Amino acid sequence: MAPLIVHADRDRLAAGLAALVAEDLRAALRAKGRASFAAPGGTTPAAFLSALAAAPLDWARVSVLPGDERWTPPEDERSNEAMIRRAMAAATGARFEPFWRAGETPESAAPLLSAAIAPALPLDVAVIGMGADMHCASLFPGAANLSAALAPDAPPVAAITAPGAVEPRVTLTLPALAGAGRLYLLIAGADKRAALRTALGERDATVAPVGAVLGAARAAEVHWAP
Ligand SMILES: O=C1O[C@H](COP(=O)(O)O)[C@@H](O)[C@H](O)[C@H]1O
Question: Rounded to an integer, what distance in angstroms lies between the CA atom of residue 65 and that of residue 18?
């Protein structure tokens, strides 16, 4: 089971996880000359991403991609791409691989994105968040094609439409996330900790996608603060 690391507060969560991820990326750079990092979306990770971007690292050799994207242009305040770019502005030279593509739908974009990110796979590091409904990235309970996105042979990127999601989305699938050299779940607050406890006790992957992803991961840790 993925160990749970408890931080005293959200500032220490952001700084502590950033230090770990920066070291993972440095190790990948030393080993291979390049590194890949999937960043979480939503509201929780901005402080972590800013702390990470400030870490001394040769960002020009790092590929950054979102773990999932709401199907909305980067000008929209709900865009994960916009949040990640803003929070990681200090990561000078990092190569960002956007998921939103003008003129495409999630369904038409997913195979294009799977091909585009293939050189970055397996990911060196993926950090994911979680909703209180136990979704992670955009692997939402109740999504029509969730089982396909959780399958061991799923392509790296899938389109997702779910009742619990405001807009259609694209997401990294279970094999892309679980295959990362390091997978971290970044969560904060009592509601998320309770949801994680429920998820870890749930056997049905389509009810608790986050439990399935953590369970399949090569190396996973959960980082939480109140
Ligand atoms: O919609 C999303 O939600 C989750 C959780 O976000 P948070 O705002 O509760 O931190 C996030 O991990 C995911 O990337 C995002 O698209």
Answer: 16
Amino acid at 90: A
What is the residue whose two structure tokens read 């190396």? 219
Q: Is 41 in the pocket of ligand 1 (CB under 6 A)?
A: yes
Whether 81 lines ligand 1, by a CB cut-off of 6 Å, is no
- Atom of ligand 1 at shortest range from CA of 66: 14
138 lines ligand 1 (CB under 6 A): yes
Is residue 63 within 6 Å of ligand 1 at its C-beta?
A: no
State which ligand 1 atom lies nearest to the alpha carbon of 165.
1
Q: What is the C-alpha radius of gyration for the chain, rounded to an integer number of angstroms?
A: 16
Q: How many domains does the chain have?
A: 1
Find all residues with CB under 8 Å of 77, minimum gap 6, and list them.
none
- Record the pTM: 0.98
User: Is the ipTM, as predicted for this complex, more than 0.95?
Assistant: yes
What's the CATH code of the domain at 17? 3.40.50.1360
pLDDT for the residue 1: 84
The separation between CA 139 and the C-alpha centre of its own chain, rounded to angstroms, equals 11
CA dist., res. 211 & res. 209, Å (int): 5
Range of the domain at 21: 4-225
What would the DSSP string read from start to end of 197-209?
HHHHT---TTT-H
